[in-house]
Q: What sequence folds into this?
């Protein structure tokens, strides 16, 4: 059987896909940032060091941390302002970003979700080291590989009342992802825990 191979998706392309997913090609004619709707959203236990993150998103995660949980390697790749991209293999990588022009906070995300707008293809509320988070998108595998596990996973993490971090892990069956080869959501949760720890004031 021929093994299916996918080329590494460039970080800028990955973030573009993530942005389109989160900020919504499906918003149709909306061209302005989404309005906020008053709905209950989990409280932030104490603000993390948001200024440190916005000044340098790569301050939220280190290469050693990714290698420490089983990725074969991790190197920072160029990306847009407001994002940190780490390549961990030929087709695998992790991106951490913030999008203040759209989903500024979990409050905004919960509001859009309550209004029925597209916030991703998944909604699973979590707590990461006592900080509220939501799994918002899972890219399922295809064909005969579907039962092996997903290809990518995205999570939204609240770090203060006004700032939300989006974390996406792409594995695409890449063996360089180690134990996360078919568990990108597990890796994304681990990364979110690193982000909380690294941004504690």
A:
């Amino acid at each position: 059987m021929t093994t299916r191979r996918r080329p590494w998706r460039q970080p800028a392309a990955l973030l573009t896909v993530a942005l389109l997913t989160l900020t919504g090609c499906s918003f149709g004619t909306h061209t302005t940032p989404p309005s906020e709707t008053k709905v209950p959203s989990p409280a932030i236990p104490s603000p993390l060091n948001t200024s440190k993150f916005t000044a340098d998103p790569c301050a939220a995660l280190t290469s050693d941390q990714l290698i420490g949980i089983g990725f074969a390697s991790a190197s920072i790749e160029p990306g847009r302002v407001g994002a940190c991209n780490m390549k961990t293999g030929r087709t695998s990588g992790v991106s951490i970003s913030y999008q203040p022009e759209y989903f500024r906070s979990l409050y905004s995300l919960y509001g859009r979700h309550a209004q029925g707008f597209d916030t991703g293809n998944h909604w699973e509320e979590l707590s990461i080291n006592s900080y509220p988070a939501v799994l918002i998108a899972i890219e399922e595998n295809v064909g005969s590989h579907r039962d092996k596990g997903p290809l990518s996973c995205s999570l939204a993490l609240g770090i203060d009342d006004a700032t939300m971090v989006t974390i996406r892990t792409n594995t695409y069956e890449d063996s360089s992802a180690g134990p996360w080869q078919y568990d990108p959501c597990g890796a994304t949760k681990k990364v979110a825990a690193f982000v909380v720890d690294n941004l504690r004031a």
The radius of gyration is 16 Å.
